[in-house]
Amino acid sequence: MHPIDWLVSQVSPAAGLRRAHARSVLAELRSYEGAKLGRRTQGWHAPGGTANDAIRGSLPRLVNRSRDVMRNTWWGPRIKSTFVSHAVGSGITPTVKTGAKSASKDATRRAIRVWNDWAKECDAEGQLDINGLIALAAGTIIESGEVLIRRRPTGHTRGKVPLRLQLIEGDQLDTSRTGPLTDQGIDFAADGGRSGYWLLPYNPGRMMMGMARGASARVPANDVLHVYRKDRIGQARGVPWVAPVLLKGRDIADLEEAVIVKAKVEACLTVFVKRAAGSTAHLAQTVTDPRAAAPAAGRRKLENLAPGMINYLDQDEDINAVTPSSSLAFDSVQVNNWMTLAAGAGITYDQLTGDLRQANYSSLRAGKIEFRRLIEQFQWLTLTPMLLDKIWQWFVDAAQDAGVLPRRAGGYPVEWIMPAVEPIDPLKDLQADILAVRSGRMTWSQFVASWGVDPDDQLDEIERWLKDLDAREVVLDADPRRGAGGVKGAAKSDAKPQTDDEDLANAA
Predict the structure, then answer these.
(1) What letter would DSSP give residue 119?
(2) What is the number of other CB atoms lying within 10 angstroms of the CB of residue 508?
């Protein structure tokens, strides 16, 4: 009963009954089943508030538990590595589209060459290249919900891009900084844009004896990238991806532990020997075996079972054995749990467990199509606008300021080539791609890019390869200009086609 209704009923039971009846009728008139009040929804607590209200108090504990899952379970790292390997793979390749003129092509090649040189030494810690940093950032987003990347200008060196990138965990946001336009260490402008970040000098989880927390410093938003998956309007920070399945995963781990312990108990064959009244065998045992327990009242009690154990009981002792039942149908229960865990994490059952016993081409393809859509969303809606494009602009600005790249009116517009999607059945998928190119559903360039290769680089390589074949006078079936005799689909002859005049002369 509602508290006010209860108070009214204490004064006037009839009035309280009318109020309770009216409230129950009102609940029945609600349009949505999920909004009704009653026994089934009695324990359903759904607090309101903005996305930041929900995140503010829960995020530190969610992050710590997510990291614990990544350290101490088998399924946490599996989820993380699956997403990172598909979203980033061995690297994401930039291509520059500056036009079709020779001067534009030269600018394109120069920009990519400078990028490749800078990418090898862009890490502020001096350990990873740009692809390693992107993979680490993607993994941090999945594990901790967010990652910060700070622009670190360096001293000018001739021919070098004076820029380094520093990855920072979200823990270094000073959440104590609050105000009318500051939330969780992030400064906002009046129009809702970000103007700065309050960053601590080091991670507050760093265990150093006697070290003070340190004061945070404000860093302009232009020098920091804050990358996370944005699920709600106005959401200022990211949430670990395994947050919806943390409790489910813990329940599964507890079930596995219980089944293992149960199996160990079932394996314990233990013999209890009860001596007859007046027997002195236990006295002799205490003399010959120093490990034997004392026969007095202080005798050590048996608390553990072990396979093949033999234990002696006194004449006034007895035991009620607990006989464990046979093992339950654990496999079917656990498979269902793993399916639920995989679905909640956004991957397929076979990706989580590696179990392909009942998989076939159709089931694998159906599952991978759904997973590819999730990966493409992460690549194009999170990584590209919040990370890749911003890093490229930092790189171009630093390279132009240092004179490594010339300034151009149109700039250096970039397009990104994502890692190739490995086919389930290479022959079937390749035949489908060929038909798609021939029918115009996609271009040859799009087909090549889908395999993680720059189409311009591919054309350059083909051109060099064909010229090399001609110079060496080598004929291969892979060269469609010169079909080898007897090969299906190859040209029947290398002879030049005759002209109309030659045809008339031969006919005469």
Answers:
(1) H
(2) 5
Pairwise CA distance, residues 205 & 170, whole Å = 11
18/138 same-domain check: no
Where b means 16+ CB within 10 Å and e means fewer, 421-457 reads beebeeeeeeeebeeeeeeeeeeeeebbbbebebbbe
Looking at the fold, whether 12 and 59 belong to one and the same domain comes out as: no
Give the orientation angle of helix 51-72 with respect to helix 130-144, to 10 degrees: 110
Q: What pTM value is reported for the model? A: 0.77
User: CA-CA distance, 105 to 99, in Å (whole number)?
Assistant: 7
**Parallel/antiparallel/unpaired status of strands 194-199 and 310-313:** unpaired
Sign of CA dihedral 256, 258, 261, 265: negative
User: Which H, E and C letters describe 339-366, residue by residue?
Assistant: HHHHHHHCCCHHHHHCCCCCCCHHHHHH
Q: What tokens appear for 79 in the block?
A: 């989820």
β-strand 271-274 against 310-313: which pairing, if any? parallel
Q: 10-residue block means of pLDDT along the chain (508 residues)? A: 73 80 68 73 82 91 96 94 95 86 81 96 96 98 98 90 97 93 95 95 74 84 97 95 94 88 73 58 48 51 63 64 61 88 93 89 86 95 97 96 91 93 85 92 90 86 89 84 51 48 52
> Both 219 and 145 in a single domain?
yes
- Burial environment of residue 489 by CB neighbours within 10 A (0 to 12, 13 to 18, 19 or more): exposed
Two structure tokens written together for 463: 């051109």
Residue labelled with tokens 């081409």: 361
Residue 13 domain-assigned (yes or no): yes
Specify whether the CB–CB gap between 14 and 5 falls below 8 A: no
Phi-psi region of 486 (alpha: psi -120 to 50; beta: other; left: phi over 0): left
E strand or H helix at 133, and its extent? helix 130-144
Structural domain range at position 29:
3-35
Residue 280 contacts residue 288 (beta carbons within 8 Å) = no
Q: At what angle do helices 102-119 and 389-401 cross, to 10 degrees?
A: 100
Does 357 reside within a domain? no
The number of domains in the chain is 2
- Quick check: 246 and 66 in contact, CB under 8 A? yes
Q: Based on the fold, state whether residues 241 and 193 are members of the same structural domain.
A: yes
Q: How far apart are CA 330 and CA 259, in angstroms?
A: 8
Gyration radius of the chain over CA positions: 35
User: Is 58 part of any domain?
Assistant: yes
* Calpha distance 462→206 (Å, rounded): 53
